[in-house]
Specification:
The protein is 83% helix and 0% strand. It is mostly helical. Helix 1 (5-33) runs antiparallel to helix 4 (94-124) and helix 4 (94-124) runs antiparallel to helix 5 (128-162).
């Protein structure tokens, strides 16, 4: 139970650490399921970035005398499970790529909320160095989200539209 901001911070750090370690397990599966070379590359790069983010969380915990492990991030479990279901239900190709981007962006938005909160708590506690580390991770999460949007808009979504039957395409444009 959290009785202080420090307790809440520790719970939040542990929850975020759990989320990141779950992402480390999920990203290789997403990379394998993707068909777009740009998306495969984005997942590979984000795997490397996520490894550094886990190290940053460990560093912050060490500086604060806290254990990174402990809490399980149930929200991330749900998001990862959702992505796994998409990989089971959809055939490899542009539609699955679009679904994977959507699933990955849900993860990114969750992480942006988590790192924004951690940064604010650390600043309030006067832990500027730790806050800067979490702000660096927050920027990386935002950058990944923007990259995924670029891949979706520039390549994946147009390719997925090409797979739609002609009557569905006209309906999606509002043509009767």
């Amino acid at each position: 139970m959290a009785d202080s901001i420090r307790d809440l911070l520790e719970m939040s750090l542990q929850d975020t650490y759990s989320a990141e370690t779950q992402i480390l397990d999920a990203l290789p599966k997403m990379q394998e399921a993707a068909s777009s070379p740009k998306l495969k590359q984005a997942f590979q790069e984000h795997l490397e970035v996520t490894q550094r983010q886990v190290e940053r969380l460990e560093q912050v915990c060490q500086q604060l005398g806290m254990e990174p492990g402990g809490e399980t991030c149930e929200a991330m479990e749900g998001l990862v499970e959702e992505g796994e279901e998409l990989m089971e239900e959809l055939e490899q190709g542009p539609v699955l790529d679009a679904a994977l981007i959507g699933a990955a962006q849900k993860v990114e938005h969750y992480e942006m909320a988590a790192y924004g909160t951690l940064t604010a708590m650390l600043k309030a506690m006067g832990e500027a160095k730790c806050a800067d580390l979490m702000a660096q991770t927050l920027k990386e999460e935002k950058d990944t989200d923007e990259l995924l949007t670029e891949i979706a808009e520039g390549e994946v979504n147009p390719a997925a539209m090409q797979q739609m039957p002609a009557n569905d395409q006209s309906a999606s444009r509002g043509v009767a």
